[in-house]
Design brief:
Blueprint lengths: L2 E5 L2 E4 L4 E8 L8 E6 L5 E7 L6 E3 L7 E6 L4 E6 L8 E7 L9 E2 L3 E6 L1
Parallel strand pairs: 2-11
Antiparallel strand pairs: 1-3, 3-8, 4-5, 4-9, 5-6, 7-8, 9-10, 9-11
Length: 119
């Protein structure tokens, strides 16, 4: 079955950096676009970034463009999110998600990893 397991979250000071990882299993990782989304306390889901199946093309929300970098290692079936210049507004539960075989959207989610940025 499809499994997505995020890790790498934690407590960091404002201006700091973290790298999140998402270990994928149960499907052909290199066939699917992958996503990072987050949910801040009391708020809805916020899309952050997308990477195409081969990793050649990436997309970012305006909130994180220039600060976050999505990448993937298809040999290791792992998705990454490098986060720099973190702000208190980045405090949230971060999820990786797998898209459908074609097009945009989220079909499967991980359990999330908490990122807390102290000011």
């Amino acid at each position: 079955q499809v499994q997505l397991v995020e890790s790498g979250g934690g407590l960091v000071q404002s201006g700091g950096s973290l790298t999140l990882s998402c270990a994928a299993s149960g499907f052909s990782f290199n066939s699917y676009w992958m996503y990072w989304v987050r949910q801040a306390p009391g708020k809805g889901l916020e899309w952050l970034s997308t990477i195409t199946h081969g990793g050649a093309t990436t997309f970012y929300s305006d909130d994180v463009k220039g600060r976050f970098t999505i990448s993937r290692d298809n040999m290791k079936n792992t998705l990454y999110l490098q986060m720099n210049k973190l702000e208190s507004e980045d405090t949230a539960l971060y999820y990786c998600a797998r898209g459908p075989l074609t097009g945009w959207g989220f079909e499967y989610w991980g359990q999330g990893t908490q990122v807390t940025v102290s000011s």
